[in-house]
Design goal:
Elements lengths: L2 E4 L14 E4 L2 E7 L13 H18 L7 E8 L5 H11 L6 E6 L9 E8 L6
Parallel strand pairs: 4-5
Antiparallel strand pairs: 1-2, 2-3, 3-6, 4-6
Helix pairs in contact: 1-2
Length: about 130
């Protein structure tokens, strides 16, 4: 089966031994996307801005793989504080208004760079897309 590393300057650079994404046949596995601006390396303040940035990074990796937010089958959202759920969910819902993917949301003790949110995804695209 064809296995391709997915990388784009449109999302925060991988800072460890992992890929931004991996395409295996029709499936795209996107590593957790932190709310780091790929141009400046800065993290915006607040859960709303961080959720927007994480989703923008996620979208950029998917685009590099020949997919889009609409291709997502499953996401996992990691929150530093479950009290931020409603605010994160409003931003998230605006990006997935039709046929939203399956999702898990988990509160974690700490995230890299002490961000408030991280979002990973699994998407499915046709074998001929790229």
């Amino acid at each position: 089966m064809n296995r391709q590393v997915v990388s784009t300057a449109g999302a925060a650079k991988a800072v460890g031994p992992y890929s931004q994404g991996l395409r295996v046949g029709p499936m795209v596995f996107v590593s957790g996307q932190l709310p780091v601006d790929p141009g400046t390396g800065e993290v915006p303040d607040g859960i709303e801005a961080q959720t927007l940035r994480s989703l923008a990074n996620l979208s950029a990796v998917l685009k590099a793989a020949g997919a889009s937010l609409a291709s997502i089958a499953k996401t996992t959202v990691f929150l530093k504080d479950m009290n931020d759920f409603a605010a994160m969910n409003r931003i998230y819902a605006a990006h997935f208004s039709e046929a939203p993917p399956a999702r898990s949301t988990i509160e974690v003790a700490r995230l890299p760079r002490d961000v408030l949110v991280e979002i990973e995804a699994i998407a499915i695209v046709s074998e001929t897309s790229a």
